C-alpha cells in the first residue's frame, strides 16, 4: 500500500481542505535513525510502554472503572485524572501511526487502546457526558457548574484529541464515537445567551477549543469549529473576579480581557498556550484576520519578552505563569515541561497558518531544550519545572531540590511528553498551499514523502544533527514538473551555511534565501542530492539587557542546543568554592570536549573559567552580603580552569548538583 | 509616680531576673519628636484607631461573638481570624504603655480593650480553650487534631502576647486571666510521650513558644517556659511528610530536621523567624548554649545569605519562604512585611542575649526599609509582599501589580505593623547585665531613663536622624558613680563618625570602640552633653557577586535608608524607553535633591543616569531577546539624565509605576 493512501503517518493539526493556510501538513515523515529516532525509541519502548502500569498505580484507570460501574465513592487523585489516560491514549495512537513502530508493540498498543476505549465507552453516560471525577467523586454536583476549576471541558478536550489521533492513525472509530457523543453533548449544552442552550460559559483551563477544531477536521462536522469559536470568544469576564494575585486573578485563566484585545501573554502558561493553539486553529478554519493577528501578536510577545533561552516559558511558580516582560529568573524558572510542549503545538499551527520560518525556528529550540529536558535520558523519570540554575548550597535548604521523578500527583507532563514525541514526525515537514514546495522544518534521518507539483516526491534525509551540521538529502522519487525544496535555516546559521547540489556548489541563481527558508527550485530527478551544512561552531550568547537575570553573563550554544555547566563536572576547587564562584573567560573561546563519559554520549564543550575574586567583606559587617563601594568588582586572578558544559536537555541525569546555564563573564 | 515604678513604658521581651543575658530592657524610652514620632503618631491615630472598624468589617469580631453565643455556623474568613484581633489588642496595649499617647485615645483604647477582653472571656470554653474557628466553624473536630494547618497554637500564642502586653502596660488582668487559663489548658494537653498528657505534637505555625516564655516572665510561672522548650524540641518530624515542594514539604514549617541541627533558615519565613524568636527566648531563660548557638548560626545564615538589601527576607512567593543561598530575585522578592517584623523581634532578643551590636545594626536597616515600606505614609493602606523591582510594561500583564491595600483576606501584616510600631520604644535602649552601661541601640528624639550604676539616669536625645547625622544627648539625671554610655555606631558609619563631649572632642582615652559600640565611660553630671555625628554621605552599594540578581548593579543608601528610583520621577525619555533602559554613572556621584514635593517630604537623592545602548537585534531573529556575541555590551552613549531617588519605605505612595532598588551600573 503506497504511503499516500495509508492512514499511518497520522499527524496533529490537519487543516481542512478549505482552510486559509500557507502550508499543509501533507508530508509523511519517518524518523529512522539518529538523535530523534533514539529519543523516540525510548519514548515508545520505555515511557509509553510503562504508561498503563503508571496509570494503574496512580488510580486513573480505577476511577474510570468506578464510573463505568456507577460507583459514587473511592475516587483517587486530582479532578483531571482522566486526562492522563487520554494523553497516554493519544501518545499510543500517534505511535501506532508511525510505520517504524515495532509490530509487537503496535499489537500491544492496539490491545490496550481497545481496552481503554471500551472502559471509556462503558463510563460514558447516555447524555454523552464522561468525567470520572464528577461521576464518582461529585455525583451531586450538576455538570458544568464549576467551570472555573473543575476542568470538565479541559478533560473532554484531551479525550477528543486522543480520539482524533486514534482515528487518524488507524481508522478505528472506537474512541471517535465516544468523543463525538461527548462533543455533541457539549454542543447541545453550551452557547451564547439566547441560543437556547443552557450554559453560557467556558472552562477555566483552555484545551477544548483546539480539540473541537481537530474533531471537526476529522469528522467534517463544522459545528465543532463554531463551538470552539464561541468558547474562544467567551474568555474575558467568564468568571467572577476573586482576587488580583496568583490563581485567583482573572488573568490566570486568560479571563481578564477578551482574547482579541489581549496585549500580552499572561497567567498560567499552559492555559495561555493551549488557548492560543485553539485560536490558531479557529483562525485557520475561519480565515479570521483579527484572530490570526492576535495569535501573531501574542506569539511575538511570548518569544521576544517572556522566553527563556531554552525556549521554556513561565517565570512564576505561584501561578505556573508568565511573569512581567523580561522577568526571567533562572533559579525559579518554572518553565513547565507542559508549557514548552504547548508552545511547540501553538508554533506548528502558526507555521502552517503563516508559512513563516520563525515559528519552527523557535520550536526547534524549544524541542531540543525546554521539552527534552523534561524526560530523563532513559525515559523513566521526569521533570515538571525546569530551572536554569541550581545554586551551590541548595542542599542546605530542605526541599526545592530538582529531582527527576517517576510520576507526579499532578502528572500532566509525562503523558504530554509521550504524545509530543510520538507525534514528532508530524512537525518536521509540510507542503506549500499551492502544492509546489516541499518544506523541511526540522532535520532528522529518515524519509519524507509528499505530493508536490502534482506527483509524489520522496526524499531520504541522512544526518547526525545536532552533533554534526551536515544534512544530506537524496531524491528517491519525483514527478517531472519542477518544484521547490525549502530547507529551513536556523537563525544562528543564517549567515554561515554551505550548500551542495549533486556534489557541487549551485549557481547563485539556483537558490534563494527568504527569511529563514533556503529555496531550491528546479526540475528534480531521482538520485539528485542536496547537502546543507549548518554552522555548528559553538557560540557565546548574551541576553537583551532588560533580562536582568542574565546581566553580565554568557550562555553557550551549539547548533540548536543550549548548554549548561553541572557541578559534577567541575574540576577541584579550593574549599568552600563552587560553581557560583566561577566566571567564564569568553576571549578563550569554546572547545569541543574529548570526554566520552558524558551522559547519553553527548558532545560536551569546554570553556575557560576562573575563580572570581571575592570582594573583601566589610570589616564592620562581615555578616552582611552588601558593601559600600564605588568601584566595579575586581577582575578574577589565578589560573584558568577548564569547565565542561553539557547540553541542557541532558542535565540532572547524574547525581543532583549545582547547575548554571548563564555563566558570569569575566568581561562583564 | 516615678518612671521606674510605672507600668507604662512596657516593652516586649523582658528576660526574667535569673535569665542568662548580656543586656536587659530596663531602659524606659519615650519618642517625642522626629522621624519615629511621626510614624508612630500616624500608627496610633490612623492605623490603630481604624483597627476596630476593620476587624468589624472583616468579620473577626463577629466570629468571636458567635463563639461566645455558642453558635456553630456563620464563621467568616481564614482559620486564624482571631489573631488579627489579638495583634490589634497587643498594639493597643503597647500604645497604652506609651506615656506620649494622647489621653483621649488612651481612654478610647482602654474601653475597646476592655470590651474585646470581655468578648474573649465570654468565648472561652470552661477548659480554657479559645478559638472561634474551631468553636464556630468546626465544632465536630476534636481540638488540636489538625495542628499542621489549623493554627490553634499560633492563635493561642497571639492571644497570650496581647495579654502580656496588656498586663505589662496597665496591670490589668482581664486579658491575662483569659490567656493564663488557655496556657494552663495547653500545659495539661501537650507533652512528650509518657508524660501523661494526651497530645505529643506542635503547631504548624510557630508562635506559641515565644508567647509562653513571655507569659512565664509576666506571671512567674516557669512551667510555661518548660512547655515552650518542649514545643521547640518537637519540630523535626512532628508531621507526616506529604511532598517535597512548597507548603507541603516538611521544611515549610521547619519540621524537616530538629531545630538544633538546622544548617540554614528555610521554609516559610515568618514561621522560621517566630520559631527563632522562641528559641532565643528559651535560650535566654534556660541558658542553654546549644540553643543559643543555633539561633546565632541561623541568624548569620539569614543575614549573610538570605537577606535583601532592605533587610527583607523571603525570596519565594509559592511558600512565602526563604530561597536558596543568595537567591534574591528583585521582582519577586516576597519579603513579607510580617517576616521583616519577625526579624526585628528575633534580632532584639539576640541583642539582649548576646549584647552584640550587629543584631540592632541589622534591625535598624530592617525597620527603616523592610518594615516601614509595609504601611503607606498616611497609615491607611498596606503592602503584604515587598518587591525591590517593578518592571516597565508590568501594566500589560494583568495582575501582580503591587498596590497598597486597606486590608487583606489574610490580614496578618496590618495589625503586625501596628503592634511593632506601638512597641518600638522597647527596641531602642537597654542596660548591661552588670548594670553599669546604658546602651542606645536606635536613635530617636525623646528621653531615655534607666537604672545605671545603682542610680536612675536620664538622657534627653535630640536628633533629626535619619535626615541628619547629628545625635545630641544631654544628661538630665545621673548618680554619682561612673557609668558607661554605649552608643551603637551603624556599620556604614564605623569608619567615619565624630564625637563631642560637652562640646569638645574627647581625649582618645575617654572612649573606646568595640565592635559596633562606642563606649564612653566616665562620671556623668547633669547637664553633660554628648554629640555623635554619623556619616550620612549618600553611598553606592554593591552586592556579593553570588547575589546574581544584583550583578552589575549598584544601589544607593544614605544613613539607614535604602533608596529606589520610581518611574513617576523619571525625566522625559525617548518613546518606548523606561526605567529598565537606564544605567547609572557611579563616577558622577550622588547629590541631595532639592525637590520639596517628594512623598512625605523625604530627602531625595540625585544620580546621573544614561539611556543604555540597546544592542542591535539579530537580523535573522528580531523576535528573539538573545543573540550570539563574544563582546560585552556597548557603553551607553548620549547625554546624562538626572534621576531622583526616594527612600524605599516611601515608594508606591503616588501612582503605581516602575521601581528599582538595584540600578545597572554603566561601569558594569
Automatic annotation (TrEMBL), chains A, B:
One of its GO terms (biological process) is carbohydrate metabolic process. InterPro entries: 6-hairpin_glycosidase_sf (IPR008928), Beta-AFase-like (IPR049174), Beta-AFase-like_GH127_C (IPR049049), Beta-AFase-like_GH127_cat (IPR012878), Beta-AFase-like_GH127_middle (IPR049046). Residues 1-25 are annotated as: Disordered. Residues 437-535 form the Non-reducing end beta-L-arabinofuranosidase-like GH127 middle domain. Pfam families: Beta-AFase-like_GH127_cat (PF07944), Glyco_hydro127C (PF20737), Glyco_hydro127M (PF20736). Keywords: Hydrolase. The keyword Hydrolase applies. Residues 538-664 form the Non-reducing end beta-L-arabinofuranosidase-like GH127 C-terminal domain. Residues 29-425 form the Non-reducing end beta-L-arabinofuranosidase-like GH127 catalytic domain. GO terms for molecular function: hydrolase activity. This is Glycoside hydrolase family 127 protein.
Amino acid at each position: 500500500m503506497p504511503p499516500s493512501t495509508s492512514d499511518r503517518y497520522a499527524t496533529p493539526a490537519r487543516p481542512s481542505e478549505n482552510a486559509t493556510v500557507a502550508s499543509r501538513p501533507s508530508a509523511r515523515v519517518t524518523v529512522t535513525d539518529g538523535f530523534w529516532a533514539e529519543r523516540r525509541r525510548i519514548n515508545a519502548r520505555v515511557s509509553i510502554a510503562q504508561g498503563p502500569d503508571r496509570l494503574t498505580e496512580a488510580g486513573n484507570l480505577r476511577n474510570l472503572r468506578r464510573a463505568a460501574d456507577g460507583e459514587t465513592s473511592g475516587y483517587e487523585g486530582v479532578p483531571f485524572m482522566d486526562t492522563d489516560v487520554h494523553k497516554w491514549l493519544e501518545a499510543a495512537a500517534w505511535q501506532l501511526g508511525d510505520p517504524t513502530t515495532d509490530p509487537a508493540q503496535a499489537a500491544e498498543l492496539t490491545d490496550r487502546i481497545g481496552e481503554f476505549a471500551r472502559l471509556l465507552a462503558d463510563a460514558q453516560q447516555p447524555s454523552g457526558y464522561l468525567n470520572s471525577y464528577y461521576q464518582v467523586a461529585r455525583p451531586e454536583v450538576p455538570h458544568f457548574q464549576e467551570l472555573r476549576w473543575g476542568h470538565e471541558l479541559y478533560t473532554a478536550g484531551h479525550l477528543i484529541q486522543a480520539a482524533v489521533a486514534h482515528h487518524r492513525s488507524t481508522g478505528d472509530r472506537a474512541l471517535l464515537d465516544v468523543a463525538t457523543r461527548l462533543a455533541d453533548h457539549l454542543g447541545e449544552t453550551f452557547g451564547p445567551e439566547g441560543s437556547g442552550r443552557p450554559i453560557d460559559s467556558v472552562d477555566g483551563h483552555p484545551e477544548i477549543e483546539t480539540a473541537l477544531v481537530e474533531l471537526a477536521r476529522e469528522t467534517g462536522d463544522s459545528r465543532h469549529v463554531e463551538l470552539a469559536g464561541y468558547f474562544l470568544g467567551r474568555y474575558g469576564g467568564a468568571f467572577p473576579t476573586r482576587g488580583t494575585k496568583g490563581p485567583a486573578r482573572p488573568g490566570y485563566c486568560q479571563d481578564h480581557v477578551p482574547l482579541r484585545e489581549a496585549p500580552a501573554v499572561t497567567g498560567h502558561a499552559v492555559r495561555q498556550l493551549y488557548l492560543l493553539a485553539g485560536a490558531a486553529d479557529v483562525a485557520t478554519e475561519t480565515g479570521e484576520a483579527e484572530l490570526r493577528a492576535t495569535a501573531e501578536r501574542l506569539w511575538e510577545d511570548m518569544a521576544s519578552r517572556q522566553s527563556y533561552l531554552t525556549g521554556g516559558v513561565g517565570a512564576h511558580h505561584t501561578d505556573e505563569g508568565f511573569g512581567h516582560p523580561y522577568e526571567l529568573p533562572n533559579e525559579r524558572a518554572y518553565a513547565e515541561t507542559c508549557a514548552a510542549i504547548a508552545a511547540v503545538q501553538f508554533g506548528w499551527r502558526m507555521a502552517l497558518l503563516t508559512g513563516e520560518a520563525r515559528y519552527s525556528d523557535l520550536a526547534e529550540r524549544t524541542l531540543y531544550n525546554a521539552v527534552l529536558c523534561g524526560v530523563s535520558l532513559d525515559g523513566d523519570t521526569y521533570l515538571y519545572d525546569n530551572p536554569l540554575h541550581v545554586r551551590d548550597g541548595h542542599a542546605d535548604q530542605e526541599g526545592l531540590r530538582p529531582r527527576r521523578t517517576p510520576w507526579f500527583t499532578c502528572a500532566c507532563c509525562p503523558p504530554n511528553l509521550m504524545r509530543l514525541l510520538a507525534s514528532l514526525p508530524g512537525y518536521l515537514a509540510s507542503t506549500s498551499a499551492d502544492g509546489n514546495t516541499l518544506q523541511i522544518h526540522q532535520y532528522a534521518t529518515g524519509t519524507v514523502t509528499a505530493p508536490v507539483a502534482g506527483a509524489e516526491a520522496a526524499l531520504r534525509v541522512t544526518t547526525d544533527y545536532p552533533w554534526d551540521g551536515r544534512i544530506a538529502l537524496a531524491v528517491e522519487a519525483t514527478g517531472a514538473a519542477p518544484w521547490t525544496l525549502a530547507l529551513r535555516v536556523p537563525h544562528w546559521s543564517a549567515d554561515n551555511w554551505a550548500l551542495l547540489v549533486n556534489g557541487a556548489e549551485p549557481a547563485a541563481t539556483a537558490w534563494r534565501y527568504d527569511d529563514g527558508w533556503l529555496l531550491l527550485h528546479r526540475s528534480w530527478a531521482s538520485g539528485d542530492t542536496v547537502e546543507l551544512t549548518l554552522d555548528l561552531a559553538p557560540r557565546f550568547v548574551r541576553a537583551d539587557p532588560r533580562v536582568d537575570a542574565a546581566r553580565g553573563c554568557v550562555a553557550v550554544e551549539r547548533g540548536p542546543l543550549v548548554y549548561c555547566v553541572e557541578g559534577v563536572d567541575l574540576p577541584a576547587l579550593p574549599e568552600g568554592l563552587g560553581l557560583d564562584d566561577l566566571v567564564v573567560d569568553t576571549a578563550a573561546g569554546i572547545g569541543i570536549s574529548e570526554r566520552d563519559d558524558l551522559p547519553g554520549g553527548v558532545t560536551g564543550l569546554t570553556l575557560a573559567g576562573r575563580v572570581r575574586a571575592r570582594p573583601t567583606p566589610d570589616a564592620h559587617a562581615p555578616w552582611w552580603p552588601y558593601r559600600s563601594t564605588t568601584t566595579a568588582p575586581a577582575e578574577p586572578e589565578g589560573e584558568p580552569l577548564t569547565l565542561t558544559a553539557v547540553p541542557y536537555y541532558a542535565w540532572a541525569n547524574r547525581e543532583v548538583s549545582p547547575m548554571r546555564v548563564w555563566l558570569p563573564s569575566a568581561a562583564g
